[in-house]
Amino acid sequence: MVNNPDWEGKVRIIGVSLDQDTATVKTRVEDKGWGKVEHYWKASANLDWWQFSGIPHVALMDKEGKIVYKGHPASGDLENAIKALL
Predict the structure, then answer these.
(1) What is the per-residue burial (b if ≥16 Cβ within 10 Å, else e) of 5-31?
(2) CA distance 24 to 30
(3) Which residue, 5, 25, 62, 77, could crosslink 17 as a Cys pair with Cβ 3.0–4.6 Å?
């Protein structure tokens, strides 16, 4: 999904890690080959700030910052939601 040419310049994918230290985040990003995703680190398992129900979790926002999709990243609904925004 990350390399979809139809999304070039239109979709920004950001990862948030709850790992305990930045070295763990860096290692995981490198091991998984997630170099094209922006990554941020939050050293807490408190998910209240995004109202996530669990991990992994995805939130999709429109250009105005309104959340238009929340759910599990493996859901087929995620790709459809992105296509609808394009």
Answers:
(1) eebeeeeeeebbbeeeeeeebeeeeee
(2) 10
(3) 25
CA angle 18, 75, 61 (to 5 degrees): 65
Query: Of 3, 39, 14, nearest to 24 (Cα)?
Result: 39
Summarised one tens digit per residue, pLDDT across range 52-77 is 767 777 888 888 888 888 888 787 78
Q: Which of 45, 52, 46, 44 is nearest to 71 (CA)?
A: 52
Closest to 15 in 3D by CA, of 64, 48, 55: 55
Q: Does this model's pTM top 0.70?
A: no
Mean predicted confidence (pLDDT) in 11-31: 82
Do residues 13 and 37 make contact, with C-beta atoms less than 8 angstroms apart? yes
